Amino acid sequence: MAKIFFTLLLPLLIAFSQTSPAAGADSSFVQSVKRNPMKLRTEKLSQFRFYWHDIISGPNPTAVNIVQPPVNNKTKTAPTGFGMINMIDDPLTEKPEADSKLLGRAQGLYGLASQGEVGLLMAMNFVFSTGKYNGSTLTILGRNPVFHKVREMPVIGGSGLFRFARGYVQASTHSFDLKTGDAVVEYNVHVMHY
Predict the structure, then answer these.
(1) What average pLDDT does the chain have?
(2) pLDDT confidence of 156, banded at 50, 70, 90?
(3) Is this model's pTM higher than 0.70 or not?
(4) Separation of alpha carbons 128 and 123, rounded Å
(5) How far apart are CA 110 and CA 94, in angstroms?
(6) Cα–Cα distance for residue pair 40/52, rounded to 1 Å
(7) For the chain, what is the total number of helices (H) and then of strands (E)?
(8) Please, which domain of life does this record's source organism belong to (predicted)?
(9) Using an 8 Å Cβ cutoff, are 152 and 172 in contact?
(10) Closest CA to 54 of 116, 188, 146
């Protein structure tokens, strides 16, 4: 039995020892980088406030449904909408009015991810199009229980002037039209970046 075990195990041990980075394998695909050549400046905290317009109705919606929720055969409804997914390209404006200054767009998706309440999973990039942040992005990924007064979601990264970004956003509903499903949400962003 021991002879069979070593006959099978020995070739595996040899193979793993030759492919393991700890055994001196070539790791030319990765290298350490010193911080100075990256020209990182002092990290700072920036705060932004803008309004997110989720427009489902009308001829030019900014949010479109890509997956319908499953329907309960007995009640013919999905009480929390669990399973629904919308793709978004929502305007971000300076003030709550739709015609106020456009600062950028929120691009991504949200899905109803809770069976117990209306809770969204938000995955979106804030893509800025004005001022010194033009072309820079912040990435948000988190849970949004929409009927809570204030919802907090993490900033998990960014690009451009927001490289290495981290922080959080607080969302609060400014207005919601029950008939159309259109919403305006105030976003307060607190982000650490270089």
Answers:
(1) 86
(2) very high
(3) yes
(4) 16
(5) 22
(6) 31
(7) 1, 9
(8) Eukaryota
(9) no
(10) 146
| Closest CA relative to residue 92, chosen from 58, 120, 133, 59 | 133
For residues 59-68, average pLDDT: 95
Helices (H), the chain: 2-19
Flag whether pLDDT at 37 surpasses 60.
Answer: no
* Number of other residues whose CB lies within 10 A of the CB of residue 167: 19
Q: Which residue has the tokens 């900014």?
A: 62
The set of residues, in sequence order, having a beta carbon less than 8 Å from that of 177 and lying 6+ positions away, is: 57, 183
| Cα–Cα distance measured from residue 8 to residue 28, given in angstroms and rounded to the nearest whole number | 31
Q: How crowded is residue 25: how many other Cβ atoms within 10 Å of its Cβ?
A: 11
Residue recorded with tokens 């988190």: 142
Question: Closest Cα partner for 184 from 172, 170, 168?
Answer: 172
Structure tokens at 151: 């919802």
